[in-house]
Recover the amino acids of this structure.
């Protein structure tokens, strides 16, 4: 908020000549008359009248009308008294001198009035220019503003600056209900009276409050913000006096600009909402279809298998096989739930990365153990440098990253093929690389593999298509990056780079026992 | 195996209680079940079970509080059950005196192994004892560690780290606890020391340092000495 002197917005102009101006006018007239003294007593006293008239005209360009009148009166009297014969009297002999004396008055007067009027118009023009400039600045700032809340702040600030009165906005909520709290005056809820008045103004689209036909017992004057399609709300200003015509039209233009900006944002918000609804509808359908499928298959397996066990006399091998199926189905369900929980964490933005020092060997071991059964058919090669320092990561998140990458490889690579996992340090952190000998990705799919619910067509593996988007999400939560390409010898090659501090200490206590 | 030992299960989920009851009974344990924390406290006092399985998410009492109350007089092993992704809860439970933890869903085979390990660990060994595994022997009194009969050269820190874990064999020790015991109070934030020393120690004592069998990592929580 600006605290300086508010710029004068009214058209009060500068019509209050100080006494100084009168003194200046008298002084100049005196000097002019004195400098004409050599011409006194001669037959050139007409020339003196021209000189004095000229001086008065000059003065009217920079003095107010009062001082100019004073100057012309003084000049006329001085001319009469000192120059027109008989000198040192106010008596005028010749009728033509009398005529000149009268004309002197009239010319000085007209001169003064005309120049003052021109100057007043000039002041007005300058003021108008200032307003146009302010309006331009307002439009500019409003167009730069992003979001309704920012516009509200700018609008209130600019109104206070231009009209030197506190102001605030009360907006509607998008459903044509005026919001009594929230957007508008900073954290100060409206009083009951104010809210009622604002409601009246909003629904009647008429101004009310002080200096209007509907006073409504509030300290403010309330104006409706009237847009083309939407009425964004109401603006309240604490005027100290009624606006004059000029101020009123300025005010109208001013709030029209604000209304435009607000309306633009309102319409934008509505469009965004519509887009968001369409998008979430699409997502809902995808989710619904794939989740119901992915959940039903293992549940159906569990139900069917356990039902068979409960209701048949069969024992031994078949039972064991069925129980094995139940176990597999439950693992699949568990994995599904894990992925759904993870993607929900990512989507909600509630991921907090808790970094601590870990041994990359531990991370890899942990995941290899968890995926022991899935990785059994493969030859897994792990390559970690001997002097790999501890790295600073969120163990739980990185575990999910590696788990999903390895699980993915196990789903797609042919049995007995090689899966290669390599770790290494870089300047700014460390890298993990995973290569499999599977089919790799179609070139067109490489860009999409990290998208939610994306699945390469015709793949045997089920799943929701969440694994790799979780990998990407958790990697990025570490401020890391992931890249996928098809390995030169076939198969997919994932490269992760995770920034990490380097441990900075001398290993203490090295005494050998 | 025939145990006459009694295990108290405190869990509010009927299905989990039933599953545990069936599985553990089949392994020969005598089972008592409690569905609430209050019931659990009463059962623990009246039956003196040799081990308690405690679910942290109970409807009536906060599991951590229950654990603290139990620990005021109950000295035998407590294994905590919790849901995944709650490392802080687990660490807190271990600090509150739990011996071990399992995250749901868990495999029953794993559960039985943990119960056996906890029961063994409960028979605490004297300070002068020698802890022996298949390949390793750690003499706590003389500070001599042998691998396959050969004496290993360990630094003082390495030895105190190893003996601390070995003395609590089978039990999960949190990072903070280990740092405090081995390095002292000022070092409790310095997990980087721990990582480096564990890696060093593994190279000396493990048959395959890349797949450790003795110094086992508990992700995000701490370490355990496996036998």
């Amino acid at each position: 908020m600006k605290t300086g002197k508010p710029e004068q917005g009214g058209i009060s102009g500068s019509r209050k000549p100080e006494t100084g101006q009168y003194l200046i006018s008298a002084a100049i007239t005196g000097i002019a008359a004195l400098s004409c003294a050599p011409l006194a007593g001669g037959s050139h006293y007409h020339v003196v009248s021209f000189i004095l008239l000229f001086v008065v005209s000059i003065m009217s360009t920079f003095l107010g009308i009062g001082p100019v009148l004073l100057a012309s009166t003084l000049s006329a009297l001085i001319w009469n008294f000192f120059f027109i014969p008989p000198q040192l009297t106010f008596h005028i002999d010749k009728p033509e001198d009398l005529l000149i004396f009268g004309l002197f008055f009239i010319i000085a007067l007209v001169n003064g009035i005309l120049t003052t009027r021109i100057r007043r118009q000039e002041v007005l023009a300058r003021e108008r220019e200032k307003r146009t400039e302010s309006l331009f600045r307002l439009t500019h700032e409003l167009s730069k503003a992003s979001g309704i809340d920012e516009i509200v702040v700018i609008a209130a600030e600019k109104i206070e600056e231009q009209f030197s009165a506190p102001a605030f906005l009360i907006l509607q909520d998008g459903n044509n209900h005026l919001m009594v709290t929230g957007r508008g005056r900073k954290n100060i809820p409206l009083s009951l009276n104010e809210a009622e008045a604002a409601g009246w103004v909003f629904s009647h689209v008429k101004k009310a409050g002080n200096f209007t036909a509907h006073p409504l017992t509030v300290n403010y004057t309330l104006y409706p913000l009237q847009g083309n399609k939407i009425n964004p709300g109401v603006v309240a200003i604490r005027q100290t006096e009624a606006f004059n015509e000029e101020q009123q039209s300025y005010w109208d233009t001013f709030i029209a600009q604000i209304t435009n900006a607000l309306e633009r944002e309102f319409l934008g918000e509505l469009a965004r909402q519509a887009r968001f609804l369409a998008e979430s509808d699409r997502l809902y359908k995808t989710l619904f279809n794939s989740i119901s499928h992915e959940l039903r298959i293992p549940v159906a397996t569990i139900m069917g298998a356990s039902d068979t066990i409960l209701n048949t006399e069969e024992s031994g091998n078949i039972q064991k096989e069925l129980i094995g199926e139940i176990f597999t189905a439950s693992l699949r369900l568990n994995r599904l739930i894990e992925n759904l929980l993870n993607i929900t964490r990512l989507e909600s933005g509630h991921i907090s990365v808790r970094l601590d020092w870990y041994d990359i060997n531990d991370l890899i071991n942990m995941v290899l153990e968890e995926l022991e059964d899935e990785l059994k058919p493969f030859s897994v090669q792990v390559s970690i440098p001997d002097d790999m320092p501890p790295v600073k990561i969120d163990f739980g998140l990185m575990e999910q990253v590696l788990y999903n990458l390895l699980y993915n490889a196990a789903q797609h690579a042919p049995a007995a093929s090689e899966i290669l996992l390599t770790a290494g340090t870089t300047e700014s952190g460390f890298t993990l690389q995973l290569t499999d000998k599977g089919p790799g990705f179609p070139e067109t799919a490489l860009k999409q593999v990290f998208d939610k619910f994306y699945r390469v067509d015709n793949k045997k593996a089920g799943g929701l298509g969440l694994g790799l988007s979780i990998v990407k999400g958790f990697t990025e939560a570490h401020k890391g990056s992931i890249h996928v390409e098809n390995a030169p010898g076939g198969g997919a090659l994932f490269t992760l780079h995770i920034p990490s501090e380097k441990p900075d200490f001398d290993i203490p206590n090295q005494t050998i026992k | 195996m025939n145990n006459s030992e009694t295990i108290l299960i405190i869990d509010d989920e009927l299905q989990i209680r039933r599953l545990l009851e069936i599985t553990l009974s089949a392994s020969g344990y005598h089972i008592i079940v409690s569905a609430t924390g209050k019931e659990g406290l009463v059962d623990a006092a009246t039956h003196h079970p040799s081990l308690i399985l405690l679910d942290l998410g109970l409807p009536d009492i906060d599991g951590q509080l229950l654990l603290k109350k139990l620990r005021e007089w109950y000295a035998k092993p407590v294994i905590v059950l919790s849901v995944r992704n709650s490392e802080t809860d687990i660490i807190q439970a271990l600090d509150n005196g739990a011996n071990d933890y399992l995250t749901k869903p868990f495999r029953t085979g794993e559960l039985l192994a943990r119960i056996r390990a906890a029961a063994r660990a409960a028979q605490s060994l004297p300070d002068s004892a020698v802890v022996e595994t298949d390949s390793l022997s750690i003499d706590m009194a003389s500070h001599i560690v042998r691998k396959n009969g050969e004496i290993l050269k360990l630094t003082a820190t390495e030895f105190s780290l190893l003996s601390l874990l070995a003395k609590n064999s089978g039990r999960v020790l949190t990072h903070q606890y280990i740092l405090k015991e081995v390095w002292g109070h000022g070092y409790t934030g310095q997990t980087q020391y721990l990582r480096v020393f564990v890696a060093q120690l593994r190279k000396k004592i493990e048959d395959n340092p890349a797949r450790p069998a003795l110094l086992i990592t508990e992700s995000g929580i701490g370490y355990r000495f496996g036998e």
In short: The CA atoms of residues 48 and 223 of chain B lie 29 Å apart. The interface with chain A takes residues 84-85, 87, 105, 143, 153-157, 159, 175, 190-199, 209-212, 217, 219-220 of chain B (CB under 8 Å). Chain B has a mean pLDDT of 87.
